[in-house]
Amino acid sequence: MREPIESTVAQVVDYIREMIVREEIKPGARFPSERNLAELTGTSRNTVREALHYFETLGLVEKRVGSGSYLAEDPDALYRAVNSRQLLVRYNILEMIETRRILETGIVRLAAERATEEDKERLQAILADSLKKGEKVKTAKGLSAYIQSDYELHREFAVITDNVFLLEMFEALRDTFLDAGNYWKYQPDKVRDSNRFHQLIVDAIVAGDPDLAEQHLKAHLDDMVVMLDQVETQLATGK
Fold first, then answer.
1. Residue 33 φ/ψ region, left for φ over 0, alpha for ψ in the -120 to 50 degree band, beta for the rest
2. What pLDDT does residue 3 have?
3. Are residues 42 and 25 in the same domain?
4. Residue 86, number of CB atoms within 10 A of its CB
5. Domain boundary among 63, 83, 103
6. 146 within 8 A of 137, measured Cβ to Cβ
7. Which of 83, 108, 123 corresponds to the end of one domain?
8. Which domain, by its residues, includes 152?
9. pLDDT on residue 1
């Protein structure tokens, strides 16, 4: 028996994926009960249920009332699921976006209130560089450069607050933040939407309008969630 894992949905998703890869669960076979999976993974039944729901949304799990959950017998769907790391990190990314919704709305509000003229000039220069890099995202090198510039722009919002704790909290999101940027390779045209929101947020900070900065930041994160859903559907259907 494998060792229990930490209680996050993403890790349970990965655990179930490994069961499929190792053929511990074969196509058409019934999954262990939610209670058994919770014991195997050291998590709660609610966490297991959400992980199973993830596979259900991909058409990989069929729930039968009074019988349990069964693995689909669709080889193409199974192949896409077990070979796509982008799908498997989705829950970590959603948790990161949720954290940003709480943390970064406060950050942009403070940035709008505290930005000096020097801060504003530096912020606009970073934005201009990011917008320029956004024109080259259809190459792997260009996308990588844009993703880094995206992170640096949002990090600069935290720098402007002049609050070291907020900056350190934001920097803790760096790895997952950069992972999320890789979704743009599936929908590079969405970079234009991201840049539009970046411009609006920066304009609000420069204007000293915390309410508007918060409003545009929230809209930006909402748009990211929509993109994640679209990419998940795109990868799951192969279209």
1. beta
2. 36
3. yes
4. 17
5. 83
6. yes
7. 83
8. 92-237
9. 34
Residue 85: predicted pLDDT: 45
**Six-digit token pair at 16?**
């179930």
Q: Which residues contact 225 (CB under 8 A, 6 or more apart)?
A: 94, 97
**For 45, phi and psi rounded to 5 degrees?**
-65, -35
Phi, then psi, of 199 in degrees rounded to 5 = -65, -40
3-state secondary structure of 43: coil
Contact 103, 140 (CB under 8 A): no
User: How far, in Å, CA of 173 to CA of 176, rounded?
Assistant: 6
- Strand runs (DSSP E) across 146-189, as ranges? none
Do residue 211 and residue 136 come from a single domain?
yes
In this predicted structure, what is the pLDDT of residue 88? Answer: 46
User: Rg of the chain over CA atoms, in angstroms?
Assistant: 21
**pLDDT score of 199:** 97
- Mean pLDDT for each 10-residue chunk of the chain (239 residues)? 47 81 84 90 85 78 86 69 50 80 96 97 96 90 92 96 93 84 85 95 98 97 88 68
What pLDDT, on the 0 to 100 scale, is given for residue 235? 66
Tell the burial category of 154 from Cβ atoms under 10 Å away from its Cβ (0-12, 13-18, 19+): buried
